[in-house]
Amino acid sequence: MQPFNAVSRIEHAGLDGLILYFSDNDIQATSARVSNCHQALKAASPIWLREAIPSFDSLLVIFDPYAIDDHGVYQFIHQLPVRQDNVIAGKHHRIPVWYGAPEANDLEDIARLTGLSKDGIINTHTATTYRVYAVGFAPGFAYLGDSADSLNVPRRQSPRTAVPVGAVALADKQSAVYPQRSPGGWQLLGLTPVAMFRPGAEQPALLNMGDTVSFYGIDEDTFRQWDIQA
């Protein structure tokens, strides 16, 4: 199968899947290419489509092998009317954070790694507009890029066995929010009271690929009262 447009490579994923890899000038442009193809495929909604899963630079297409073969899927996607610009029409989310919450507080470690003060860390994090590049690892776990160069920090040498729900974190040039209690090795900034994943909801994950996110600080009292206010 030959590459086309922004699709640079195509690989099989078992008997019922194709992985389309995209390339462009930078990660944002590549992400836009993935998202645009994903949106076009969802809008077309062919009867053979079982699932389409976007990631940083790829789109996994799972199809019904009794309804179509891989060549038919390739031809269908090749002919899709896909936007060729680098604009993603996602939602913007403003997420509150209780920075320095005792259960999720690596601010001292981050300060040591970056040379920033705690206020400097918070100010830099809240001044950044992040883009959702992928959702994975756990349901509703969104990989948000790109952090400012000054907040580029490594993962912890010893991952935690349990990170609390709502922990806002940094690793490398990314930020994220843990949607469930789970193991994790990212550096923790604080907690958000906003649910990232609601099982059973029509749209379970709050954040989706192409959305943008900004964070803002709240105090402990606001955090504790959030469920009452929401």
Give a verbal description of the structure:
The protein has helices at residues 27-44, 70-78, 107-114, 118-127, 220-229; strands at 7-12, 17-22, 49-54, 58-63, 92-99, 130-135, 142-145, 160-163, 167-171, 174-177, 182-184, 187-191, 212-217. The mean pLDDT is 91. By secondary structure, the protein is an alpha+beta fold. It has a seven-stranded mixed beta barrel. The chain has a four-stranded antiparallel beta sheet with strand order 1-2-4-3, with helices on one face. The protein folds into two domains: 7-78, 2-Layer Sandwich (Gyrase A, domain 2); 92-229, Cyclophilin-like (Cyclophilin), CATH 2.40.100.10. Residues 8-207 form the Carboxyltransferase domain.
Could you name the key traits of this structure?
single chain; 230 residues; alpha+beta; Gyrase A, domain 2; Cyclophilin; 2 domains; 7-stranded mixed β-barrel; 4-stranded antiparallel β-sheet; 5 helices; ATP binding
According to CATH, the fold-level topology of the largest domain is Cyclophilin
Average pLDDT reading: 91
Oligomer: single chain
CATH architecture of the largest domain: Beta Barrel
How far apart lie the N and C ends?
Answer: 50 Å
**What is the 3D form?**
elongated
Main sheet characteristics: 7 strands, mixed, barrel
Estimate percent helicity.
Answer: 10-25%
Supply the CATH class of the largest domain: Mainly Beta
Beta-strand content: 25-35%
- Which value, in Å, is the CA radius of gyration? 19 Å
What is the N-to-C order of secondary-structure elements (H for helix, E for strand)? EEHEEHEHHEEEEEEEEH
Number of domains: 2
Numbering strands along the chain, what is their spatial order in the largest sheet? Answer: 5-12-9-10-7-6-13
Number of helices: 5
GO molecular function: ATP binding; hydrolase activity
Keywords: ATP-binding, Hydrolase, Nucleotide-binding
Protein name: Carboxyltransferase domain-containing protein
Organism: Alteromonas confluentis
